């Protein structure tokens, strides 16, 4: 049966957009188990949000569920997939095929979510021409031709920090307007270009902070030790 969705209201808040993949992941798991309907409470718990926030988010898609029944899993899955653009395939290029870029190229989860890794690029001569995940690594100098050749829609930057800004600038120059940056660097892009950042080291540092807070009683100085240390510092 072909699903026909109602018109989707525009102006979906960014915070809601960021949660839609969480709902889609939960719905996909439910569909794989053969679940036909799900309540807002159950879907919210599976997605890690509260039910009021979930209902508000889904209302932006024109989906309100049915009282006493909940949401139809297949229909809601289709609505969210359509809203975030997963009802079509997206060609993706990875720039920087070091350890991280190599791992991303070999990740099998992209294809099942509508993302096709179409091109790999690197500036290092020893990497150009090598084969990774069934693709030959191409030189960055060929970026413009590759973007046109493969109709690249999204670029992933996995370069060292010092190269990230120049790579992003080049991507913008050749018409890429959606960039996912894994490089541990702050980069700037012009208005109209969507930049998302994934900094693994920062996330680890945040976890370390919480671990330290959790074990703070064991790590913190006693009041007497703090006074003695202050005296020593003052000399």
List keywords for this structure.
235 residues, alpha/beta, Arc Repressor Mutant, subunit A, Rossmann fold, 3 domains, two-stranded antiparallel ribbon, 10 helices, 46% helix, globular, disordered N terminus
Quick recap:
The chain has 235 residues and is α/β, with parallel strands linked by helices. It has helices spanning 14-32, 40-47, 51-59, 73-83, 99-106, 143-150, 161-173, 200-214, 216-219, 223-234, and strands spanning 37-38, 71-72, 90-95, 115-122, 131-132, 135-139, 154-157, 178-181, 194-197. GO terms for molecular function: DNA binding; DNA-binding transcription factor activity.
Shape: globular
Main sheet properties: 7 strands, mixed
Return residue spans where pLDDT drops below 50 for at least 5 consecutive residues. 1-9
**Biggest sheet: strands side by side, in what order?**
5-6-4-3-7-8-9
Cα distance spanning the termini: 81 Å
Cα Rg: 23 Å
Number of strands: 9
Write a structural description:
The model is unreliable at 1-9 (pLDDT under 50). The protein has 3 domains: 14-83, Winged helix-like DNA-binding domain superfamily/Winged helix DNA-binding domain (Arc Repressor Mutant, subunit A, Orthogonal Bundle), CATH 1.10.10.10; 90-198, Rossmann fold (3-Layer(aba) Sandwich); 202-234, no CATH class. Helix 1 (14-32) packs across helix 2, helix 1 packs antiparallel against helix 4 (73-83) and helix 2 crosses helix 3 (51-59). The protein is built from 10 helices and 9 strands. It has 235 residues and is of the alpha/beta class. The N and C termini lie far apart (81 Å). Helices cover 46% and strands 16% of the residues.
């Amino acid at each position: 049966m072909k699903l026909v969705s109602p018109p989707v209201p525009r102006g979906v808040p960014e915070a809601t957009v960021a949660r839609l993949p969480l709902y889609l992941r939960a719905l996909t798991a439910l569909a794989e188990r053969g679940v036909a309907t799900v309540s807002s409470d159950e879907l919210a718990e599976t997605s890690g949000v509260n039910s009021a926030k979930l209902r508000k988010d889904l209302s932006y898609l024109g989906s309100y569920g049915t009282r006493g029944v909940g949401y139809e899993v297949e229909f809601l899955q289709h609505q969210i997939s359509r809203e975030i653009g997963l009802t079509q395939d997206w060609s993706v290029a990875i720039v920087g095929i070091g350890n991280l870029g190599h791992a991303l190229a070999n990740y099998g989860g992209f294809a099942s979510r509508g993302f096709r890794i179409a091109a790999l690029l690197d500036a290092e001569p020893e990497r150009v021409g090598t084969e990774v995940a069934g693709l030959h690594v191409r030189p960055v100098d060929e970026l413009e031709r590759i973007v046109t050749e493969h109709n690249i829609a999204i670029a992933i930057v996995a370069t060292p920090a010092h190269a990230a800004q120049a790579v992003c600038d080049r991507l913008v120059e050749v018409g890429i307007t959606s960039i996912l940056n894994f490089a541990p660097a702050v980069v700037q892009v012009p208005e109209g270009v969507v930049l998302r950042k994934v900094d693994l080291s920062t996330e680890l540092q945040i976890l370390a902070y919480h671990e330290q807070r959790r074990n703070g009683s064991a790590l913190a100085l006693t009041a007497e030790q703090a006074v003695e240390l202050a005296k020593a510092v003052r000399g």
